């Protein structure tokens, strides 16, 4: 039965099977090749879909089983980017990584995710979400040796993303989410050109559009950074009013075990709110009641029809059994609150 209230969803990634890629590792290389890799990816998508469905997740995704990384898999399919000669850059102002270089005009000369989206759509009868990196986060995940301007490069990436997103929508994708963790770091750029490039990436889409803004995967660099943010995390405070005026339909925020004041949600009045009720930086599996407690608190500021329980971020660094347990807790916790709202 389709739930009309508190429709649960995931933000993005889920752990990959050990036969597809090394577990608990970002950018893990594929362990299969050619036709075996394609088959392995599809098998992995089937598994994560069943995990989500059995956990009661309403709007499902492919868990990014077909991508080594949420940003670079798209970038490596574009012209103008050199993956052979990498540069070390500071990502999100907090950790160093070897990344590809932009060496010429970036261009999308062919569909990137179309075949994966077709398979996802065919493998479930539930509404499906597909995630794409946002323009600012793409810019912040490579070295620009050509445009020499983060804004100019972001505008080019927005064109690429819009072409890709329109094709995904035509294939039956119900929600297209742009991941913008960089929005929590470069707030001046968000104001100056970040919102504009995000809207350009989503221009003309009729399906639901979403933006995911978080404090990162549960890796050491991100966890150490969070410890420096003080007793209240107010990064959303400058960004949410700008997003409230935007054409993006849904906005996420990190709530589970975070120091984000929930009242900041009021800055997004009128938007759908994806409330992160699952902590992706901990191996501890939440109880349904812990999830429900977060949702009840959020309902003080968000109408039930506007609230979408979800995870704080992607769960690829976690063990598969931990991620499965967290999915079940998310579905069960939402069911508890749904029952309360119905007077049960």
Describe the fold and architecture:
Helix 1 runs parallel beside helix 10 (320-341). It contains 10 helices and 9 strands. It is an alpha/beta fold. The longest helix is centred in the N-terminal third of the chain and has 22 residues, at 34-55. Helix 6 (187-201) links the parallel strand 5 and strand 6 (208-212). It has a 6-stranded parallel β-sheet with strand order 3-5-6-7-8-9. It has a 3-stranded mixed β-sheet with strand order 1-2-4.
Supply the key terms:
single chain, 344 residues, alpha/beta, 6-stranded parallel beta sheet, 10 helices, 9 strands, 36% helix, 17% strand
- Main beta-sheet annotation: 6 strands, parallel
Helical amount? 25-40%
| Proportion of residues in β-strands | 15-25%
Instruction: Give the structural class.
Output: alpha/beta
Average pLDDT rating: 92
Kindly, what is the distance between the CA atoms of the first and last residues, rounded to a whole number of angstroms? 17 Å
What is the number of helices? 10
Compute the CA-based radius of gyration.
19 Å
Poorly predicted sequence stretches spanning 5 or more consecutive residues: none
Write down the overall geometry: globular
Order of helices and strands: HHEEHEHEHEHEHHEEHEH
How are the strands ordered across the major sheet? Answer: 3-5-6-7-8-9
Q: What is the number of beta strands?
A: 9
């Amino acid at each position: 039965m389709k739930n009309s209230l508190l429709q649960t969803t995931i933000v993005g990634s889920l752990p990959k099977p050990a036969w597809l890629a090394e577990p608990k590792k970002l950018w893990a290389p594929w362990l299969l090749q050619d036709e075996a890799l394609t088959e392995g990816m599809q098998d992995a998508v089937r598994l994560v879909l069943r995990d989500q469905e059995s956990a009661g997740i309403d709007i499902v995704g492919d868990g990014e089983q077909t991508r080594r990384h949420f940003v670079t898999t798209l970038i490596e399919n574009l012209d103008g980017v050199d993956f052979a000669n990498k540069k070390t850059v500071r990502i999100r102002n907090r950790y160093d990584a070897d990344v590809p270089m932009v060496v010429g005009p970036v261009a999308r000369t062919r569909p990137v995710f179309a075949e994966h989206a077709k398979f996802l759509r065919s493998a479930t009868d539930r509404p499906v979400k597909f995630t794409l990196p946002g323009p600012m986060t793409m810019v912040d995940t490579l070295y620009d040796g050509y445009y020499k301007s983060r804004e100019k490069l972001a505008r080019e990436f927005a064109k690429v993303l819009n072409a890709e997103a329109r094709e995904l929508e035509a294939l039956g994708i119900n929600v297209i989410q742009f991941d913008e963790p960089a929005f929590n770091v470069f707030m001046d750029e968000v104001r100056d050109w970040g919102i504009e490039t995000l809207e350009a990436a989503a221009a003309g889409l009729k399906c639901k559009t979403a933006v995911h803004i978080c404090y990162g995967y549960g890796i050491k660099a991100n966890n150490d950074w969070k410890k420096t943010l003080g007793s209240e995390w107010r990064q959303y405070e400058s960004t949410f009013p700008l997003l409230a005026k935007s054409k993006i339909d849904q906005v996420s925020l990190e709530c589970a075990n975070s120091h984000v004041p929930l009242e900041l949600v009021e800055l997004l009045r009128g938007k759908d709110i994806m409330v992160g009720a699952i902590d992706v930086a901990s191996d501890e599996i939440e109880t349904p009641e812990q999830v429900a407690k977060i949702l009840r608190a959020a309902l003080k500021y968000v109408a039930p029809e506007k609230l979408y329980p979800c995870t704080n971020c992607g769960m690829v660094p976690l063990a598969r059994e931990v991620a499965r347990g967290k999915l079940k807790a998310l579905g069960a916790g939402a069911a508890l609150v749904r029952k309360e709202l119905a007077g049960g």
